[in-house]
Design brief:
Among the domains are: about 90 residues; about 110 residues, Cytochrome p450-Terp, domain 2 (Orthogonal Bundle). It contains 25 helices and 6 strands. A 4-stranded mixed beta sheet has the order 1-2-3-4, covered by helices on one side. A two-stranded antiparallel ribbon has the order 5-6. The N and C termini lie far apart (about 60 Å). Bound molecules: nitromethyldethia coenzyme A and D-malate.
C-alpha cells in the first residue's frame, strides 16, 4: 500500500504520462492527503490522469485509489470534511459497498462521542430560538455540506467537480443521477459500469402497484400536483420493507437494511408516479411506459413525454437551427435539476424527513412528510412561484420591459407584502451555484429567449432593491430563480408541476441520509422548546 503525502501528490500531478500509465496498473493505493493540501489537488490528479492518459486510464487508476481527504476543502466552513474519491474495487453492488463502509463510520461516530461529547460548537442566543434556529448547528448530515459563500458540496465535491468527475451518459454531458446517488451514499465517485449497474437495479425495483395510481386517480384534477405526488408516495408506503421487518422484531443493528431496500425502491418508483401525474393532468392521461434500456434521467424525461416522435419532429427544426437535439436538452435540464438532490440537513424538506425518520418512521412516511414541506412557497414551491411571477410581469408590462419598469414591478410586489420569489436564502450569502450553472446553460443554449433575458435583467435589478430594504440577509438569487424558464423554453410549461421535479430529485439526497441515519443509529430528534415567559425570565436573570 502506498501512502502519498501532499508534496508527493503535487509531484504526481505534474508527472509524465508513462509514469501515470504505470501507476494506473499498480494494484492498490491508499492516498492520504495531508492537512495542508486541498481536495482540489486530488481532483486535479484525477483530471490530469483523465486528460493526459485518456478517460479509461484515469478511471482505471482511480478505481484502484482510495483517497481520504482530511483536508479543509476550501474554506473554514468545510473544516473536518472527509470524503473519498473513487471506489476501491470494481464491485458493482451498491449495497455490499455500503455494508463494507458502515462499520468504519460507526467507529468514527463512536470515537467522536467518546472523545468530544462536550466540545462546544457555539452558543445559543434568543434570536436563534425565535428566528427559526438560523445559525444554530444542531444536526448530523453526512451527504452534503453548505458553505454560505461557496454553496453546496456533495460529499466534498462542488457542482463543477461533480460535473467533471461523475459519469455522464455522453461526453461532456451532465452527470447521471445514479452516479450522484452512489456518491451521496458511499462518498465515492463511481465508475460508469457501477452507474450502469445501478441504473439496471433501479429499473428492476421500479414496478408501481396499481393501487398507487388508483389513489392518485381518486383526487380531483384540480388537486395540486404536489398533493397528488404525496398521495402517490403514501400509497407506495403499503409495501414498506422496514415497517414489515420492524413488526417482525428486527434488531436495531439491522435497521439500515430494510431502510436501504425501501429507499432504493422509492427512488426507483418516483419517476413513474411523477410522470403519471404529469400525463394525467396535462396530457389527457396518456401514460408513456418506461423504457428499461434508458438511464434514470432519460427514462423520466421520456415518460414525461419529452422524446416522443412528434416532439422529435418538431425538434428536428430546432436541431437544424441550433445544431443540437431538443430531447437531449430537456434531459440535460432534468439532470441539472438533480443537483437539487441535497442541500445539507437543515432545509425544510431534508430536516422534516430526518425528524420524522428519527421516530423510526419508514422512508415512505418520512419522504412523504418532506414533500409536504417542499410544497411550501418559501421552500420548493418557489420554482412554480418564480415562473408565475415572471409571466405576470410579462402580462402587465410586455416582454421588452425596461430596467426602470422592472424596478417598479419589484417594488410593487414588495409593497403588496409579498416576497420576490427566487431571491434570498436561509444560509447562502452569495448567488446560489445551482443558479449559476443554469444561467451558464441558458447563456449557451437559449441566450435569445425573452424570459431568460428577463431573468437576466432581474439579476441586475433585484439585488440592489432587496439590499435597499435593509433587512434581507441575502439579496442574491437562489436555485428556484432559474429552472422554470429553462423548462418553459423547452416545452415543459406547466409551472404548478415544477416542484414535483424538485421532489423526485430531493429523494436522492434525503433517502441516502436516511440510510445513514439508521446505519449510525441516530436517536429520536427532540430539541427543547421554551415559552415567552421562560425567555423573559431567563433574560431578566441574565441581565441581573
Ligand atoms: N423578498 C422579499 N423579502 C425577503 C426576501 C425576498 N426574496 N428574502 C428575505 N426577505 C425578508 C424576509 O421575509 C424577512 O422579512 P421580515 O423580517 O419582515 O419577516 C427579512 O427579509 C429577513 O429574512 P432573511 O433572514 O433574509 O431570510 P430568511 O432566512 O428568513 O428566509 C427565504 C429565507 C428563502 C425564506 C426568503 O429569502 C424568501 O422568502 N425568499 C423568497 C422565496 C424563495 O425564493 N424561496 C426559495 C428558497 C430556496 N428553496 O428552494 O427552498
Ligand atoms: C434547498 O435546496 O433546500 C433550498 O436551497 C433551501 C435551503 O437550503 O434551506
Amino acid at each position: 500500500m502506498y501512502r502519498l503525502h501532499g508534496s508527493l501528490l503535487r509531484l504526481l500531478c505534474c508527472c509524465s504520462t508513462s509514469l501515470l500509465r504505470r501507476l494506473s496498473r499498480i494494484g492498490s493505493y491508499h492516498i492520504l492527503i495531508g492537512s495542508n493540501v486541498g481536495s482540489s489537488l486530488a481532483v486535479k490528479l484525477y483530471l490530469s490522469l483523465k486528460n493526459i492518459c485518456g478517460r479509461g486510464v484515469g478511471d482505471g487508476f482511480l478505481s484502484k485509489c482510495h483517497c481520504d481527504l482530511k483536508a479543509p476543502i476550501q474554506s473554514s466552513n468545510s473544516l473536518g470534511s472527509v470524503r473519498w474519491l473513487q471506489v476501491q474495487s470494481s464491485d458493482q453492488d451498491l449495497r455490499s459497498q455500503l455494508a463494507e463502509l458502515i462499520p468504519e463510520q460507526q467507529e468514527r461516530l463512536k470515537k467522536l462521542k467518546t472523545d468530544h461529547a462536550k466540545t462546544q460548537l457555539g452558543s445559543i442566543t434568543v434570536d436563534m430560538v425565535i428566528g427559526g434556529m438560523r445559525g444554530m448547528t444542531g444536526l448530523l448530515w453526512e451527504t452534503s455540506l453548505l458553505d454560505p459563500e461557496e454553496g453546496i458540496r456533495f460529499r466534498g465535491l462542488s457542482i463543477p467537480e461533480c460535473q467533471n468527475l461523475l459519469p455522464a451518459a455522453h461526453p461532456g454531458g451532465e452527470p447521471l443521477p445514479e452516479g450522484l446517488l452512489w456518491l451521496l451514499l458511499t462518498g465515492k465517485v463511481p465508475s460508469k459500469e457501477q452507474v450502469d449497474a445501478l441504473s439496471k437495479e433501479l429499473h428492476i425495483r421500479s414496478t408501481v402497484p396499481d393501487h398507487v395510481y388508483r389513489a392518485i386517480d381518486s383526487l380531483p384534477l384540480s388537486a395540486h400536483p404536489m398533493t397528488q405526488f404525496t398521495t402517490g408516495v403514501m400509497a407506495l408506503q403499503v409495501q414498506s420493507e422496514f415497517q414489515k421487518a420492524y413488526e417482525n422484531g428486527l434488531s436495531k443493528a439491522k435497521f439500515w437494511e430494510p431502510t436501504y431496500e425501501d429507499s432504493l425502491n422509492l427512488i426507483a418508483q418516483l419517476p413513474l408516479v411523477a410522470s403519471y401525474i404529469y400525463r394525467r393532468l396535462y396530457k389527457n392521461g396518456q401514460v408513456i411506459p418506461a423504457d428499461n434500456s434508458l438511464d434514470y434521467g432519460a427514462n423520466f424525461s421520456r415518460m414525461l413525454g419529452f422524446d416522443d416522435p412528434k416532439m422529435q419532429e418538431l425538434m428536428r427544426l430546432y436541431v437544424t437551427i441550433h445544431r443540437t437535439d431538443f430531447a437531449n436538452f430537456v434531459i440535460e435540464i432534468l439532470l441539472q435539476i438533480f443537483f437539487y438532490s441535497d442541500h445539507e440537513g437543515g432545509n425544510v424538506s431534508a430536516h422534516t424527513a430526518h425528524l420524522v425518520a428519527s421516530a423510526l418512521s419508514d422512508p415512505y412516511l418520512s419522504f412523504g412528510a418532506a414533500l409536504n414541506g417542499l410544497a411550501g412557497p418559501l421552500h420548493g414551491l418557489a420554482n412554480q412561484e418564480v415562473l408565475l411571477w415572471i409571466k405576470s410581469v410579462v402580462d402587465e408590462c410586455g416582454e421588452n420591459i425596461t430596467a426602470e419598469q422592472l424596478k417598479e414591478y419589484v417594488w410593487k410586489t414588495l409593497k403588496s407584502g409579498k416576497v420576490v420569489p427566487g431571491y434570498g436564502h436561509g444560509v447562502l450569502r452569495k448567488t446560489d451555484p445551482r443558479y449559476t450553472c443554469q444561467r451558464e446553460f441558458a447563456l449557451k443554449h437559449l441566450p435569445d429567449d425573452p424570459l431568460f433575458q428577463l431573468v437576466s435583467k432581474l439579476y441586475e435589478v433585484v439585488p440592489p432593491i432587496l439590499t435597499e430594504l435593509g433587512k434581507v440577509k441575502n439579496p442574491w438569487p437562489n436555485v428556484d430563480a432559474h429552472s422554470g424558464v429553462l423548462l418553459n423554453h423547452f416545452g415543459l410549461t406547466e409551472a404548478r408541476y415544477f416542484t414535483v421535479l424538485f421532489g423526485v430529485s430531493r429523494s436522492i439526497g434525503i433517502c441516502s441520509q436516511l440510510i445513514w441515519d439508521r446505519a449510525l443509529g441516530l436517536p429520536l430528534e427532540r430539541p427543547k422548546s421554551v415559552t415567552m415567559d421562560w425567555l423573559e425570565n431567563h433574560c431578566k436573570k441574565a441581565a441581573a
